[in-house]
Amino acid sequence: MIIIVKPEAKEERVRDLVQWIEAQGLRTHISKGDYTTVIGVIGDISKLDDELLSGLDIVESVKHVSEPFKNANRKFHPLDSVIKVGKDQIPVGHGNFAIIAGPCSVESEEQIISVAKSVKASGATMLRGGAFKPRTSPYDFQGLKADGINLLLEAKKETGLPIVTEIMNANHLPLFEDVDVIQVGARNMQNFELLKELGKTRKPILIKRGLANTIKELLMSAEYIMSNGNENIILCERGIRTFETATRNTLDLSAVCVLHELSHLPVIVDPSHATGVARYVKSMSMAAAACGADGLIIEVHNDPQHALCDGAQSLRPEQFDDVVKAVRRVRAAALAED
After folding, report:
1. CA–CA separation, 91 and 309 (whole Å)
2. Domain of 194?
3. CA angle 292, 298, 299 (to 5 degrees)
4. pLDDT at 312
5. What is the reported pTM?
């Protein structure tokens, strides 16, 4: 249920209404805009009388939300959410464009620091790197695990870039204490016990859409985290599996538009995993910027031919620099039209 409050309503009256609703055993989410305050009500709303609420002099209207995702719903939160990352509170969303870059997996101190310095010089706002790697084959490189996180932290000290890395098990959470953004990979998008635990943290969570999951299922996964108290969510479209084999996945850029319509959460795009081919990353990055994405997460390696993971889709630093310049031109053109 959504209760839209009249613009002239006094704050103490709104507060009294919220306290009364919560006394009925329901939860509330308040979103304040420049002209409107929206009270989202979550729980068994049969306890509330629509006519009684509508008759209050501070209430403009009462609406029911049919979608099962409440916290992530734009109806509950009409304004775009802006997620703040790291000690410098780097904003993501509502026109603040994030560029996250780095290798698929952390391989050595020299590698990760070299890449970190390169991507920062080109304009990256965060450093990505896999310490724990979910791989299809049990014989493939699984990551350096705790040592990988330590190397990411060294790169963070060298460059000041906030770090983004993937978690696979809730038991590993203590290792992520100094990680700025915890990534939930496509394979773990519906690991609901993990999502519940991440909801108890207050760190930003970057959650990737599963390769065979719908947009609604992605939002429901975000809802698992948000319903447990953590509203710092960044959604990521990284391609879905279709019958097409020319690319690793099929990049669904329409998901960016749909997600922005349905949800207030920032939406970024991963063109590297979507295509699996380095030469396609530039075009897809430009397309993502053109369709309104709030950022990109791109794989960059200083020696892709010898990468231990996903070398075929990784850009060299000079290629990444070219992509960033192209994306900036697209965004400037799009903003000029607006």
Report:
1. 30
2. 83-337
3. 170
4. 96
5. 0.90
Q: What's 282's domain CATH number?
A: 3.20.20.70
Task: Answer whether residue 268 is part of any domain.
Answer: yes
Domain contains 107 = yes
Percent of residues, the chain, with pLDDT higher than 90? 83
Tokens of 245: 């084999």
**Pairing relation of β-strands 267-269 and 233-237?**
parallel
CA dist 194 and 188 (Å) reads 8
pLDDT tens for each residue of 206-243:
999 999 999 999 999 999 999 999 999 999 999 999 99
Q: What angle do CA 282, 125, 145 make, to 5 degrees?
A: 95
Residues 173 and 274 grouped into a single domain: yes
| CA-wise closest residue to 224 among 267, 188, 174 | 188
Higher pLDDT residue, 29 or 106? Answer: 106
Question: Kind of pairing, strands 2-5 and 59-63?
Answer: antiparallel
Q: How many CB atoms lie within 10 A of CB 204?
A: 25
Asked if residue 151 and residue 35 are part of one domain, the reply reads no
3 state SS for the chain: CEEEECCCCCHHHHHHHHHHHHHCCCEEEEEECCCCEEEEEECCHHHCCHHHHHCCCCEEEEECCCCCCCCCECCCCCCCCCEEECCCCEEEECCECEEEEECCECCCHHHHHHHHHHHHHHCCCEEECECCCCCCCCCCCCCCCHHHHHHHHHHHHHHCCCEEEEECCHHHHHHHCCCCEEEECHHHCCCHHHHHHHHCCCCCEEEECCCCCCHHHHHHHHHHHHHCCCCCEEEEECCECCCCCCCCCECCCHHHHHHHHHECCCEEECHHHHHCCHHHHHHHHHHHHHCCCCEEEEEECCCHHHCCCCHHHCECHHHHHHHHHHHHHHHHHHHHHC
